[in-house]
């Protein structure tokens, strides 16, 4: 059974930091592109950042570029999202996603989410 478990969310003041973790079981994360997404109340889920399977390529949404850093430790089967200089508008539930394509089939897994709340 595949599980992605996010952790590290919480309540922080504006300007603070959090580090989210996404730990996987049942799959080898090194074979997957990993993305972090977030969804604020009343808004659609949006992509925040992603990292290629080998870690060579990363992507950041404009709203978080320069403040967030995605990284992966394939030996620990875990991906991280370091969030610095947090703003109230970063408040959302953060989800990790693991995806890969193999012989025309897409493998796509989501975690249950972790709440991040940034107070002003």
Report the portion of residues in β strands.
over 45%
Question: Helix coverage percent of residues?
Answer: under 10%
> Span between N and C termini?
40 Å
The number of distinct helices, counting runs of at least 4 residues, comes to 0
Count of β-strands: 11
Mean pLDDT, rounded to whole units?
96
> What is the radius of gyration computed over CA atoms, rounded to a whole number of angstroms?
14 Å
Strand and helix order: EEEEEEEEEEE
Unreliable stretches, pLDDT < 50, 5 or more residues? none
Largest sheet: number of strands, sense, barrel closure: 7 strands, mixed
Content-based structural category: mainly beta
Q: What does the overall shape look like?
A: globular
Write the SSE topology:
Layout: E1 3-7, E2 10-13, E3 18-25, E4 33-39, E5 46-51, E6 58-60, E7 68-73, E8 78-83, E9 92-102, E10 105-110, E11 114-119
Parallel strand pairs: 2-11
Antiparallel strand pairs: 1-3, 3-8, 4-5, 4-9, 5-6, 7-8, 9-10, 9-11
What do you see in this structure?
- The chain has 120 residues and is an all-beta fold.
- It is 0% helix and 57% strand.
- It contains no helices and eleven strands.
- The chain has strands at 3-7, 10-13, 18-25, 33-39, 46-51, 58-60, 68-73, 78-83, 92-102, 105-110, 114-119.
- Strands 2, 4, 5, 6, 9, 10 and 11 form a seven-stranded mixed sheet that branches. Strands 1-3-8-7 form a four-stranded antiparallel sheet, with no helix packed on it.
- The protein is globular, with a radius of gyration of 14 Å.
- The N and C termini lie far apart (40 Å).
- The relative contact order is 0.31.
- The mean pLDDT is 96.
